[in-house]
Design a protein that fits this description.
The structure is a homodimer. Chain A is of the alpha/beta class. Chain A has 2 domains: about 5-10 and about 230-345, Lyase, Ornithine Decarboxylase, Chain A, domain 1 (Beta Barrel); about 15-225, TIM Barrel (Alpha-Beta Barrel), CATH 3.20.20. The first copy, chain A, has 10 helices and 17 strands. In chain A, strands 1, 10, 11, 12, 13, 14, 15, 16 and 17 form a 9-stranded mixed β-sheet that branches. Chain A has an 8-stranded parallel β-sheet with strand order 2-9-8-7-6-5-4-3. In chain A, helix 3 runs parallel beside helix 4 and helix 6 crosses helix 7 (about 175-190). The radius of gyration of chain A is 22 Å and the shape is elongated. The model of chain A has no long low-confidence stretch (mean pLDDT about 95). Chains A and B meet through helix 5, strand 10 and helix 9 of A and helix 5, strand 10 and helix 9 of B.
Chain lengths: ~350, ~350
Amino acid sequence: MRYTAIDTPAVLIDLDKAEANLAKAQAFADAAGIALRPHIKTHKLPYFARRQVELGAVGITVQKLGEAEVMAEAGLTDILLTFNIIGAAKLSRLKALHQRITISVVADSLECIEGLAMTFTDPSRPLGVFVECDTGMGRCGVQLPDDALVLARAIAGSRGLFFAGLMTYPAAGKPKLAAEWLAQAKALLERNGIAVPAITTGGTPDIWKMKDAGVATEYRPGTYIYMDRSQVVSGAARFEDCALTVLATVVSRPTPGKAIADAGSKALTSDLLGLQGHGYVVEYPDARITGLSEEHGTIDVSACPVAPAIGEVIRIVPNHCCPVTNLFDDVHLIRNDELIETLPVAARGKVR
Amino acid sequence: MRYTAIDTPAVLIDLDKAEANLAKAQAFADAAGIALRPHIKTHKLPYFARRQVELGAVGITVQKLGEAEVMAEAGLTDILLTFNIIGAAKLSRLKALHQRITISVVADSLECIEGLAMTFTDPSRPLGVFVECDTGMGRCGVQLPDDALVLARAIAGSRGLFFAGLMTYPAAGKPKLAAEWLAQAKALLERNGIAVPAITTGGTPDIWKMKDAGVATEYRPGTYIYMDRSQVVSGAARFEDCALTVLATVVSRPTPGKAIADAGSKALTSDLLGLQGHGYVVEYPDARITGLSEEHGTIDVSACPVAPAIGEVIRIVPNHCCPVTNLFDDVHLIRNDELIETLPVAARGKVR
């Protein structure tokens, strides 16, 4: 079946493009001598997680316990969970996962470490804990290498935990800033007798500058498998590299300059990521998606030499592909414009 | 169980507040002599759809066939689907629904009417079709009363369809503009011998100005059941009326002025609706949610006399409650801070 016969709105994944993106990143990582640990938040599919490991990834990254549980169930055995695990319910689920697979987590406070230390008490099977470092992103993470030292000591001093290394999600476009921070922290820890087994960083915007990651030993890109409009604008991809598109139908042409598609914020999300407009229309590069309500996408087609007709299907490259896959129960794998397979998004909606 | 023991992030619905919002709107509609047909996109729950009908609603509104199917399965028998139905797959599902329940749809083009007319051909059980009118919103809908006349004639001239009336989603804050448009169209149609059985409008921002709806016979509010920050800013509600909150845990305090919660755009959506910031923190009214990534909410707590600690739970009134319920597989019904019941969001993710 040709993709144009799929009911809309729907997520299409071009397999050849995804495969090329995966292979290119793995080759870059191999050339840079850095391990790849892809973040599955982008695809949320065991299918691609397994493929990433087949191609050479050392394991996967997840952001939620629910994602880790889905991936463990699907046979993934080495998972880094890059989120502070707080509270009894989550600690209990983490413990159950740790009994089945190799899982590591992060911490950026003594409170977080304390919860882990009270849950994991078996020195014969300790939990690996990375110290999360804020190297410029301004989100989670310790602010100074001195703080990293305090937390590394607390981890190393807990009999059921071991210090796994340093973790950061760097500010986009500033990989060298992150690398400097991490180099200083590494030196400080080593001067204080604490070995740093691994240093893990990430981010698709700077994926092709992996060599600037300096002391980092591991890279955790997510978006790179599909790419999206924000990555095109940032220079990390071309539109022809974008493997994920949202298939939509033009359902109204209220005025000569306007088309309404059946893809709104419930299909494309409201993520702007600093961009103007809500996506790129593959068939109509001169169109601008000027507004979204939940089920409607308003498209300015006044600059298009020919405008789409009611009933016509179009493909939209979203601003940000990761949250898009979280909105759909299934995605359609496409090769040469033919539908190959429809997959449930197994780790969709894993908010906890 | 107290709500604070629910694992986060989670959606809480305060039943007393929701009930009060429902009752108030029904009383306003009764006083205005206008029928209420609530839009279920906000709650996506058969539980509340049934309650709305119990309280006096004439039926419900949906935006998607998938929503209509869920609601029909749950026993709702009178549904208005306010979206152009285009294409064979959807027309076939609409036909199946029409055989089970009373369902009406809208159209704003001859192309849309043609698809309906080819699918519905039985004059003994015709499909009701409203003409959608753009009365200022700038989304779908015919631009001029003259265009409404053309479409009403086309509907009335199709043997398996009947002209059900005029439908609009008005621009917020401009109910009188919509009312004028609709009055002109009604007069034009009647002058041309076409009776207008119903005129349906909607929108929570102007729900308490229902009397300004003029010739409208029916009102389709959605958000009013839960209310949200955008409705508070527009003046339609107070924060204490907001029945839906997102329960979140503070997972990091990277700096004295900053708290990170485990509710990001995957819990709150990126919808701004013209506002600054991403929600209102009930326990910390001086806090500002300054940024969201998928799983992190960054909160500026520098203006708070006391700031939340790591592990503390907070409730967030989102900017826009409707897409929030689309992100969660379940919601928690609360009364007097106690968990009453956890419900699956039956119509979540019905993109098609």
